[in-house]
Amino acid sequence: MPALPAKYEQLTREARPGAVLGAAQRVLSWDQETMMPTNGAGIRAEQLEMLAGMVHERLTSAKVGDLIAACESDKQVMSDPLAAAGVREFRREYDKKTKLPKSLVEEITKCSSQGLHAWRDARAKSDFSKFLPHLEKTIELARKKAECFGKPVGGELYDALMDEYEPGMTSARTAEVFKPLRAFTVELLDKVRSAPNKPSRAAAVAEFPIEKQKDFVAFVVKAIGFDFDSGRIDDSTHPFCEDVGPGDVRLTNRYRANGWADSISSGMHEAGHGMYEQGLNHDFFGTPLGQYISLGVHESQSRMWENLVGRSLPFWEWATPHAHKMLGGGISKYYASDVYKACNLVEPSFIRVESDEVTYNLHIMLRFDFERAMIRGDLKPKDLPGEWNKRIKADLGLTVPDDKTGCLQDIHWSMGAVGYFATYTFGNIYASQFWEAMAKDIPGRDDLMRKGDFAPILKWLREKIHIHGRRYGAEELCKMITGSTLDSAALMRHLSAKVRGVYGV
Amino acid sequence: MPALPAKYEQLTREARPGAVLGAAQRVLSWDQETMMPTNGAGIRAEQLEMLAGMVHERLTSAKVGDLIAACESDKQVMSDPLAAAGVREFRREYDKKTKLPKSLVEEITKCSSQGLHAWRDARAKSDFSKFLPHLEKTIELARKKAECFGKPVGGELYDALMDEYEPGMTSARTAEVFKPLRAFTVELLDKVRSAPNKPSRAAAVAEFPIEKQKDFVAFVVKAIGFDFDSGRIDDSTHPFCEDVGPGDVRLTNRYRANGWADSISSGMHEAGHGMYEQGLNHDFFGTPLGQYISLGVHESQSRMWENLVGRSLPFWEWATPHAHKMLGGGISKYYASDVYKACNLVEPSFIRVESDEVTYNLHIMLRFDFERAMIRGDLKPKDLPGEWNKRIKADLGLTVPDDKTGCLQDIHWSMGAVGYFATYTFGNIYASQFWEAMAKDIPGRDDLMRKGDFAPILKWLREKIHIHGRRYGAEELCKMITGSTLDSAALMRHLSAKVRGVYGV
After folding, report:
1. CATH level 2 (architecture), domain B171-503
2. Residues of A taking part in catalysis
């Protein structure tokens, strides 16, 4: 690899210790979720707070700021495309981190911590009134935060919040991309409802011992390309992927006796995140060129492996015989097509994280609209439950029985994460766009999958997406790869085809 | 708990961040040994080095030094026995950490790192000449280090090295304590050799599935009192105990198909270390009053549970029926007395870590004598293999076949740990002394063990030893508890009784 300009290298050296400590912090946090005994919680909280402070201090130091400025006025740096992209992103991060006054950061931290407790309590009792004051405070603080970041020219405050998770994205663009998708999905749901035959879910809910399921998930995750020399997989209540450092990416998964198909999905989902992290350029660790682009692009990787690979018929044509061997017993009577259909049923439901590939985006679009309206002031937090239930009725035809099954189901707002939700659907959209573009480069893709050869898919993702880190913006990269920016048409084509394959309509 | 004097509290507050970071460092190090994937090694080394530097910087800061000095001249502090003890130990640590010039520390670090590589290579090839230059350098640097610490009045350089692991201990005292033990052991071995009947090892080497062994070890470790809300047990190549913070003590163990009895021993050994850490006063975390006294006392706790409990007949009278239930199969034909005898065979062997309770100390005494002689200059490193083999012949009657089975077997010197070995035998001695003293306070101890009631033993250890942290020195505490300082008589009585029980001689 050619050396980057001297001034830029100086900046990356200055940034490295913060990144190294940040990675240490992630090991501690992973350990907290997976390994730590109950009574270790006290000191762990103290360690995480201390490290967070130290990381923040290093990444926002005047020296880093000065070096960014020096790079910006250094011709050698700015005429090098890689270095210039790095500087642009260093600047974005630095500004984000330094624009908030300390008092606001502290207020937000306190509000999140109290909000989390209040939300757990409210959800347990399905009592929105217990969470309402915290939601109001969260929206107020999010607005203050957005004001500090500054709204983009011609944009709205909410855009500044989205930008934290999906750099460069605006709410107007999002609304434009979501509009046809919502109408399409509602219509597609009608089609599904009117389908003459409903496939059986039986193959997906057959019971198997957890240990066998674990072995099978590990086998699949390894087969699709997750590198166990640079990662591992453990158990946790909620599956997640923690990139604890270059060469060390940790997945978790969960298992239920009758949930083997779900475990495969969540395992492949987390492995998709993990392989993105494993595919980043580790020479650029600790700099934007070694980091993922956006949550949307990250989610495109997890969704691609979960849905476009893991819920495809060719995948199950490969995987089903292995399932017969490894799970034994109750699976041997099912063919690949049974499993394929069983894990692709479309059924409107209340809970986002349990919903299918088609209805999932309706859950997201609801949240995006409501968040945006709350930040604008067009929706009062107190009116949320009523509006939520109306929308679920309109889009999914369901009557929400209580708030824990409705607007209290997600953790995000309680933690102060406003502007995050849309990235899930960006992920689904990008995944379909990339998948279509990839098909042109790998013409025999289905046959390869049938043989269990996933390497060409991963190679394509590595070369087209992973290796670039944050060099390009999300939509810019999408345009380079697919010829267009974010566009839900590919996702709609995919969902139509899926419904046709499963329901014959 | 009554508050300690203000000036002392100020010192402990100043020391806390270093301790908190030190605990974080231990989590990373535990993770490295147990969880980390291969390719995570690079960043982990960087993190550990960085944290080590930060911890060192905080613990050796001028501010800490000033506060120690301020405490030493503060009447309120020095007239409070707890605080005064804390200051004494803060001073000892601070001086140790600040007395070495940076250049020497760096030289030692470099030498250890190269030495470790050289040692692995030399051991693999059983070629002492490959390790010799590193051993020479290690001894030279150890001598320099000892000179920086300064030798005690009337003592020798080697004492300053021992003091790092066993504060207050000298080589003269050690030699005095070891002398009768060596003569006794050689004589006891002769007795064993002449015993008419040798018990069978069969019960200890019956084969069981590893998973069942793990469950059984966890069961035993929990039964003797290790708190799994404040700890866990995992696998590793070499068993160890890492106290990663208050309320979080991590054991590891290893398993072989035909090594269930060894796994119980090593599990109980590590749990003994772990229960000491769990029994420290966590209100004093990050200060000497919340730390273990010395490696010898630490080892006394592991050896007590491993040998005095775990290799006793009453223990196996309780454990054998559980083994029947949990391991099943090949163990059901053995009685408690079979297992007891099988795991107490005395057989001279070459490798320290595989040796039995009787011969173990001969291996240690050899190392102590040779280390001391090398530091004195009385033994040249190049002459080590010859002297080693002569001594093994004299003490154990064995002919060393090669250096990997001889003087290259231990990792310690390669890491620069000179002055450490004797603490293993101190542990055996202290354990026996404590065990005899405990018998007076818990008259029905054997019956309690037969019923699986180990709580009174742990309670005694907690109250007599654990809770005091570093308030008293090792020999001082031993005298308080047993009426005498370090004295091998109790160990000799224990070993005689053991040999009588197992061999009938």
Report:
1. Orthogonal Bundle (1.10)
2. 270
Q: B96-132: b or e for each residue (b if 16 or more CB lie within 10 Å)?
A: bebebeeeeeebbeebbeebeebbeebbeeeebebbb
Pairing relationship of beta strands B241-245 and B248-253 according to DSSP bridges: antiparallel
Phi-psi region of B292 (alpha: psi -120 to 50; beta: other; left: phi over 0): beta
Query: Dmax of chain A from CA atoms?
Result: 68
B42 interface with A at CB cutoff 8 Å: yes
Cβ contact (<8 Å) for B31 and A31? yes
Quick check: A44 and B246 CB within 8 A? no
Mean pLDDT of B253-263: 95
pLDDT tens readout for residues A15-37: 999 999 999 999 999 999 999 99
Q: B442 — contact with chain A (CB < 8 Å)?
A: no
Predicted pLDDT of residue A328:
84
* Residue A72 CB-half CA count within 13 A: 11
Query: What is the tens place of the pLDDT at every residue in A348-362?
Result: 999 999 999 999 999
- Of B36, B245, B247, nearest to A248 by CB-CB distance is B36
pLDDT single digits (tens) A199-219: 999 999 999 999 999 999 999
Nearest to B430 by CA among B286, B272, B288: B272
Q: Which of B117, B109, B96 is nearest to B160 (CA)?
A: B96
Out of A20, A38, A39, name the one closest to residue B50 (CB).
A20
Q: Is A20 on the interface with B (CB under 8 A)?
A: yes
CA distance A167 to chain B (A): 28
Which chain A residues are within 8 Å of B37, Cβ to Cβ? Answer: 228-232, 247-248
pLDDT band at B330 (very low <50, low <70, confident <90, very high): confident
The tens digit of pLDDT for each residue in A144-184 reads 999 999 988 899 999 999 999 999 999 999 999 999 999 99
Write down the pLDDT at residue B156.
Answer: 96
Round to the nearest angstrom and report the end-to-end CA distance of chain B: 52
Per-residue pLDDT at A406: 97
Q: Which of B31, B39, B247 sits opposite A247 (nearest CB)?
A: B39
Q: Report whether A44 contacts A36 (CB < 8 A).
A: yes
- Coil vs helix vs strand at B247: coil
pLDDT-based confidence at residue B2 (cuts at 50, 70, 90): low
Q: In the prediction, which pLDDT does A2 show?
A: 65
Rounded to a whole number of angstroms, the distance between the first and last alpha carbons of chain A is: 52
Q: Could you tell me the strand order of the sheet in which B241-245 lies?
A: B231-235, B248-253, B241-245
Q: Which amino acid is residue B71, in one-letter code?
A: C
Write down the pLDDT at residue A166: 97
CATH of region A202-348+431-503: 1.10.1370.30
**How many other C-beta atoms can be found within 10 angstroms of the C-beta atom of residue B338?**
18
DSSP of A45-68 = HHHHHHHHHHHHHHHT-HHHHHHH
Query: What pTM was computed for the model?
Result: 0.94
The length of chain A is 505
* Angstrom distance (rounded) from CA B87 to CA B83: 6
Chain-chain contact of A37 with B228 (C-beta, under 8 angstroms): yes
A 226-265 residues inside an 8 A Cβ radius of B:
227-232, 244-248
For residue B36, give every residue at least 6 positions away whose Cβ sits within 8 Å of its Cβ, in sequence order, or none.
A248, B44
d(CA B107, CA B111): 6
Give the C-alpha distances (Å, rounded to integers) separating B117 from A291, A326, A439, B124, B403. Answer: 34, 42, 50, 11, 17
Domain spans of chain B? 6-157, 171-503
Question: What was the pLDDT predicted at A331?
Answer: 86
- Within A242-335, residue ranges assigned H as helices are 260-279, 295-303, 313-327
Inter-chain touch A43–B248, beta carbons under 8 Å = yes
